[in-house]
């Protein structure tokens, strides 16, 4: 009997520690389970080893943490409130259009009173209206320009004479593949003509030019270099069609501005009218730049080069304008400008026979125009 008691006692002493680990006692209000840790040197106090995974045995309940401001009993005070100092400006949707409307009037006057060296009183006026509409957003750029110019000159003992006359319109649509490159694929259309008749003074009987006589149209495709933040544009087009219009039949019959002249029989009777247009196909290069070289001294440059593939390739038509503006204030400026023109189709000094018939149409020459005046500028 005693041996059985001893055996049961030893068995109880062996099983009791294991039972304490498997069924731990419950403790406190937090209901947290606590396991008696195994005494191993490499273990933390609150961990136990299960295979090769270490599991925390203490898992305290996470308490809710209050966030945000305490809005209990808010107080609103208008004592420091005051009216707006500036006019209220409602939000406007950003526009990608750049617009400019500019009117310029330049005047030049010379007067003499009892001037011993002699001279004629004169006054001239030149009006210039420019409308600019440019669109630019990411990959697309679209530039549109309409420029109207007209000038008159009056001298003592002479009638009014035309000093300047131009209608110009240009539109360029450009597309680039990314927003980093300054090179664009471009399509451009230009049109130039004039308002009124032009004469070779003092002869006022036979006009040498009229509205749409000539008229020049250009349309082509190429590439443009347009750097960001600079008023610079370089356009290169290997495929450009140029059309010259001469709608006045008298000028067309004379073969003015490169159109085919009328044909006559031996008795000088016209058997075929002159052509009213001529079509060319060639390469066009244009460059425009506008900037400020010194303080209050601006410059504007425009260059156009064209050569026809079909006839006289290598003979280049040149048009170059260079204008300087010395700004006095917001509305007044002094303008100095030059305009050089060379067109292989415009002939000068025709050679005539004794009977008056034209043997040769002459040869092209460099045309030059210079202007200087004080101007009034107004943007609207």
From TrEMBL:
Keyword Signal in annotation: yes
Superkingdom, taxonomy of origin: Bacteria
InterPro entries: DUF3078
Keywords: Signal
Signal sequence, renumbered to the chain: 1-20
Protein's name in the database: DUF3078 domain-containing protein
Organism of provenance: Arenibacter certesii
Lineage of source species: Bacteria, Pseudomonadati, Bacteroidota, Flavobacteriia, Flavobacteriales
């Amino acid at each position: 009997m005693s041996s059985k008691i001893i055996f049961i006692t030893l068995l109880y002493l062996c099983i009791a520690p294991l039972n304490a680990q498997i069924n731990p006692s419950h403790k406190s209000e937090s209901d947290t389970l606590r396991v008696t840790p195994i005494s191993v040197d490499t273990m933390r106090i609150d961990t136990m080893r299960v295979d090769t995974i270490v599991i925390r045995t203490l898992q305290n309940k996470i308490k809710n943490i209050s966030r945000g401001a305490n809005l209990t009993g808010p107080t609103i005070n208008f004592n420091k409130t005051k009216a707006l100092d500036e006019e209220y400006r409602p939000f406007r949707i950003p526009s990608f259009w750049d617009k400019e409307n500019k009117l310029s009037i330049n005047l030049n006057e010379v007067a003499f009173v009892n001037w011993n060296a002699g001279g004629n009183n004169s006054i001239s006026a030149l009006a210039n209206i420019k409308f600019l509409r440019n669109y630019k957003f990411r990959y697309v750029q679209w530039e549109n320009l309409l420029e109207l110019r007209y000038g008159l000159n009056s001298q003592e003992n002479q009638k009014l004479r035309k000093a300047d006359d131009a209608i110009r319109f240009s539109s360029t649509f450009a597309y680039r593949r990314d927003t980093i490159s300054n090179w664009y694929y471009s399509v451009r259309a230009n049109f130039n003509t004039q308002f009124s008749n032009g004469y070779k003074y003092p002869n006022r009987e036979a006009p040498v030019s009229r509205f749409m006589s000539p008229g020049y149209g250009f349309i082509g495709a190429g590439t443009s270099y347009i750097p960001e933040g600079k008023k610079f544009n370089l356009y290169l087009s290997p495929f450009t069609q140029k059309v010259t219009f001469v709608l006045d039949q008298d000028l067309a019959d004379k073969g003015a501005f490169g159109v085919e002249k009328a044909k006559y029989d031996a008795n000088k009777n016209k058997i075929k009218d002159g052509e009213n247009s001529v079509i060319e196909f060639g390469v066009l290069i244009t460059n425009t730049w506008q900037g400020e070289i010194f303080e209050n001294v601006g410059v504007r440059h425009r260059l156009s080069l064209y050569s026809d593939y079909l006839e006289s390739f290598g003979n280049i038509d040149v048009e170059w304008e260079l204008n300087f503006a010395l700004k006095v204030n917001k509305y007044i400026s002094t303008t100095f400008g030059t305009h050089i023109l060379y067109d292989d189709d415009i002939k000068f000094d025709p050679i005539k026979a004794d009977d008056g018939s034209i043997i040769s149409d002459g040869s092209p020459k460099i045309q030059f125009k210079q202007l200087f005046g004080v101007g009034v500028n107004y943007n609207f």
